[in-house]
């Protein structure tokens, strides 16, 4: 009895220690005391519960879950359901946490809070929204603001990932978290300018709330603002301001935030900006997307987008095997998704295997008819790239849901015209017009009632008629024009086209139809001629006539407009022209055809050109020939005869003499002397 009393006293002291440590937040010390209690009584339910709580507070969730699973007989689900589910949630065992919550006999407020978090992580947003609404409606405590923040986060996720138009929850955006979530919802709706304003407001509120705490530094504030700045950069990227977005993304990375999810998203967005450029930077950034725990921080669609970009980056960096491996993995995860097969086809095209790429796309289109349209468009593009325009047309015409679309009709007609297959082009028009005729009809009390033709239908008929007229199919065009005219008998333009077409086939019919044209009086157009002439782009502008007074006005009235005679311009005379000297009558003839031309003496001037430094003499090849005799005349001037050379070299032959009185060209002589002086000593 004394031993039992001593144990009870020791346990009481330990429980007091546990209580005191719990109030002080010293859970490590409290855990030691709890362990001593369990040594006294290993099956003490309260002590085991306290141990689990201490382990959770210390962040050792795995150990806490181990304690729960080891003592299942004592710690039943009714006793420890919340702690077990919370440990599973923090260990990212989300499905297990959901089962634990659902298996609990009593749904406490704590379990409901955790249930909402679990549903959010499982991306079951509709159920999550209902759970938080119920919590907000049935609870009143200091955590109401946090619940509203979580509720707005669910609405933002629905808008972003499920493209659901968010309802107005009537939440007062008094905190930066609420402003941030509201901005995310606006981004999902495509309201980028409004979203940017909300983010700016969120940044302002964040700075205000954090600056009130004296322990918070500027670095802490910037770290908290990183996620807001990340969304701002994303909006800039969506708006095409890639340089601004890139600058802001890099600023966030330099801060080295602890949120691996934020870093992964920013790195992925930088890779999308780089595309096939700056691949070295992209290869560095892709490492941030592989950080531990990223898969638990991001949604499924975010993770999928990152994997797609990894495959594309492998393709751009010529890592064909890696690209195939990643795209095959993506296809196995999402067999119905288009991107994996498109990436594989693109890789095959880079390897010049176009036929294999088309075959791969065809197999996917056969297996997934719902996505066949987009795949077939890609196949047609590949066929056009190979030069097989006719086969591309066949693929496009096999897309039934797009056959009647004006864009598809226009593309097919253009391609068939390029191939000079006019019959097929007209057939495309006919099929599209028939589709509109069939879908225009509606059944009313067993009767088939035709509504007026839609603008698209009428536009197709008009385009078909114009095309047929252009290619000489007048009779076929006439039937289309008659159909148009029946729809709108007041359409003068259609009637004029119809008359023009009949005039080439049936002139009598054209005359009959021309009677339906309005008279010239009714068709008189009120046109301001002056305004038209003065308008921008007018090719002719009539000059405004000046006011005529007196004799000039009478002269104008009597004689009418007289054309002004053009004055002949006096020809320009040469600068050295002398009226006393008779010009050379043969001056207009080429020099070779003139009577006094004697030909040019070859080699004379060439030998007189001095080479080398000033004062030196040039030695001709004849002087270096030893076979020549000493009496042979020199071909270059001697040093003493320099004056004679300069005097005789300026003599102008008679046939090149200018008329008397012409000024001498001293400038040219000076330039020749300067040329010979180049080189220096």
UniProtKB/TrEMBL annotation:
Residues 94-149 form a coiled coil. TPR repeats lie at residues 226-259. Residues 575-596 have a biased composition (Basic and acidic residues). It is found in: Cytoplasm; Endoplasmic reticulum. Residues 610-644 have a biased composition (Low complexity). GO terms for biological process: SRP-dependent cotranslational protein targeting to membrane. It comes from Hypocryptadius cinnamomeus. Residues 543-599 form the Signal recognition particle SRP72 subunit RNA-binding domain. Belongs to the SRP72 family. It comes from the Eukaryota. One of its GO terms (cellular component) is signal recognition particle, endoplasmic reticulum targeting. This is Signal recognition particle subunit SRP72.
């Amino acid at each position: 009895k004394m031993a039992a009393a001593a144990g009870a006293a020791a346990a009481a002291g330990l429980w007091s220690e546990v209580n005191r440590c719990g109030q002080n937040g010293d859970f490590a010390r409290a855990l030691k005391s709890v362990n001593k209690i369990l040594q006294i009584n290993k099956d003490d339910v309260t002590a085991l519960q306290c141990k689990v709580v201490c382990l959770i507070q210390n962040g050792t969730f795995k150990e806490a879950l181990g304690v729960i699973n080891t003592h299942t007989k004592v710690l039943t689900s009714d006793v420890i359901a919340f702690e077990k589910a919370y440990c599973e949630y923090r260990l990212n065992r989300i499905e297990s946490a959901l089962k634990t919550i659902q298996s609990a006999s009593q749904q406490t407020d704590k379990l409901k809070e955790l249930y909402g978090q679990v549903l959010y992580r499982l991306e079951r947003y509709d159920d999550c929204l209902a759970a938080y609404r119920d919590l907000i409606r049935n609870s009143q405590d200091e955590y109401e603001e946090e619940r509203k923040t979580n509720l707005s986060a669910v609405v933002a996720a629905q808008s972003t990932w499920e493209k659901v138009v968010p309802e107005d929850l009537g939440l007062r955006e008094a905190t930066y978290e609420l402003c941030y979530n509201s901005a995310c919802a606006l981004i999902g709706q495509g309201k980028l300018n409004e979203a940017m304003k909300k983010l700016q407001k969120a940044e302002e509120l964040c700075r205000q709330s954090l600056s009130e705490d004296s322990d918070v530094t500027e670095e802490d504030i910037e770290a908290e603002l990183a996620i807001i700045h990340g969304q701002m950069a994303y909006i800039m990227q969506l708006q095409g301001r890639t340089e601004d977005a890139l600058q802001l993304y890099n600023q966030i990375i330099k801060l080295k935030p602890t949120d691996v999810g934020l870093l992964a998203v920013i790195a992925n967005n930088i890779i999308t900006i780089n595309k096939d450029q700056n691949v070295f930077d992209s290869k560095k950034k892709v490492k941030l997307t592989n950080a531990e725990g990223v898969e638990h921080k991001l949604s499924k669609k975010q993770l999928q987008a990152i994997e797609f970009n990894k495959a594309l980056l492998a393709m751009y960096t010529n890592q064909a095997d890696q690209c195939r491996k990643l795209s095959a993995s993506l296809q196995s995860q999402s067999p119905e998704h288009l991107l994996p097969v498109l990436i594989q086809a693109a890789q095959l095209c880079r390897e010049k295997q176009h036929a294999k790429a088309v075959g791969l796309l065809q197999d996917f289109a056969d297996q997934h008819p719902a996505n066949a349209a987009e795949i077939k468009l890609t196949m047609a593009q590949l066929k056009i790239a190979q030069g097989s325009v006719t086969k591309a047309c066949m693929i496009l015409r096999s897309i039934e849901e797009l056959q009647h679309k004006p864009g598809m009709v226009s593309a097919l007609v253009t391609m068939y015209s390029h191939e000079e297959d006019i019959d097929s082009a007209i057939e495309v028009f006919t099929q599209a017009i028939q589709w509109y005729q069939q879908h225009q009809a509606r059944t009313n009390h067993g009767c088939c009632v035709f509504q007026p033709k839609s603008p698209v239908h009428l536009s197709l008929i008009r385009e078909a008629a114009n095309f047929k007229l252009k290619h000489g199919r007048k009779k076929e065009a006439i039937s289309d024009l008659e159909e148009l005219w029946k729809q709108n008998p007041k359409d003068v333009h259609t009637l004029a086209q119809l008359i023009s077409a009949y005039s080439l086939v049936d002139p009598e019919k054209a005359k009959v139809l021309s009677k339906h044209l309005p008279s010239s009086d009714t068709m008189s157009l009120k046109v301001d001629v002056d305004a038209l002439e003065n308008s921008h782009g007018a090719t002719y502008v009539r000059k405004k006539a000046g006011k005529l007074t007196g004799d000039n006005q009478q002269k104008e009235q009597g004689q009418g407009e007289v054309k002004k005679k053009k004055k002949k311009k006096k020809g320009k005379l040469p600068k050295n022209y002398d009226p006393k000297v008779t010009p050379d009558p043969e001056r207009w003839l080429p020099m070779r055809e003139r009577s006094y031309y004697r030909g040019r003496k070859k080699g004379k001037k060439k030998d007189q050109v001095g080479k080398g430094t000033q004062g030196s003499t040039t030695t001709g090849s004849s002087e270096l020939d030893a076979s020549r005799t000493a009496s042979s005349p020199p071909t270059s001037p001697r040093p003493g005869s320099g004056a004679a050379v300069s005097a005789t070299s300026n003599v102008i032959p008679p046939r090149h003499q200018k008329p008397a009185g012409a000024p001498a060209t001293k400038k040219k002589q000076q330039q020749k002397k300067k040329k010979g002086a180049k080189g220096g000593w």
